Amino acid sequence: MAARIELAGRPIIITGGGSGIGEATAIACAGVGMPVVVAGRRADMLHAVVSRIQESGGEASACPGDVTEADHAAHLIQHCHQAYGQPWAVFANAGRGLDRAAHLTTSQELRDIFEVNFFAAHHLLSEAATHMIRENSGGHLMMCASCVSKFSPPYHAAYAATKAAQDLYCQSMRLELAPAGIHVSTVHPITTTTDFFDVSADVSGQPGTRSGLDHTPKMFRQPPEKVARAIVKCLRKPVPEVWTSNLVRMTAALRNIFPKLMDREMRRMLEPSRIQGEDASRNAH
Length: 285
Prior knowledge:
Blueprint lengths: L11 E4 L4 H12 L4 E5 L2 H13 L4 E5 L7 H13 L4 E4 L14 H29 L3 E6 L12 H21 L4 E7 L2 E2 L3 H8 L7 H4 L6 E2 L1 H13 L4 E3 L2 H12 L1 H8 L6 H5 L8
Helix pairs in contact: 1-2, 1-8, 3-4, 4-5, 9-10
């Protein structure tokens, strides 16, 4: 049985750290003694998280920026080095959604969501892995891949595709980096009550709606703190995948065996009027 990892004093970088799962994870990690670097575009929210952690006796630092910028990953790791030393863990949590029928999703919309959710996460983990190998320090790399990395609901094909890409990418990384003492995990939250859905609605041109949240029964919703606790547990004792709902995890597994049954259940989320109601010109390339 693998020994439990003592987390106190081990720095962690968290993108999307100003709200939601990122904020909750930063607070939880600081609570067990990890120095935390929070990154994101909204500097005021990052500084609010840092202040909350410091007021509780923890160590935290904000590094504002856009994850899609070419030098962002290197800048983040350098920031952590200067503040706390070599990062032990990196959680690529920054992400955005898109509420759009697949056939009406433009090529540009698809590229934009992949830039944030997949390519930026890939760049950060690759940069971190290179440093960990060079320093022979070991470490733990994580991506927030979502439960929909295993199945795709209506109107969320682009988002689910980015999460499936994260999931598969990390599967290979986990095997490749194990000899270097680097753990790689994916996090698969179910619907989490954060501002993610408000932002997604704005990006999708549907302000005031939160279809991903509104269509989810309360039994399949959770607070971000539940995800944060599961992440800390994984950091202490690494596992390949972090799930917060065994029922959804089992459903995801069954989907591969009984896809027709899953499709039948997912049809309950359909809004037939949207096929004709959305502007068909969005599909222009």
